[in-house]
Sequence to fold (118 residues):
Amino acid sequence: MVEMTDLLFAVDSVPAVFSVTDDAFVAFTSNALAILGLRSLFFLVAGASVRFRHLRPALVVLIAFVGVKMLLEGVVAVPTWASLSVIVLTVAAGVGFSVARPSRPPLAPRGGPPGSQK
Fold:
């Protein structure tokens, strides 16, 4: 079942690959490698999103960019280098903001545990 899910997500990523390049070889090899390494990448991103709290919003922005780019493909031609730059900068910004502003621990209640004051 897990391997079928990997295959489904690899096939699902074909439009995303073609939003970055028109080269069929790149699309084929990236999807073949996606089938081989998608599960490992998922666990990497899942672990990183726990450590870097702004990574998930950065990935949302990234997915929105790819979606808008695909919708406007016939109207606006975005060069490959520009798309890759947006991808790298978005992920770097998410990680950078997470490092610059780490999550704060929850505030401890004042006066100790409930019922301790008489």
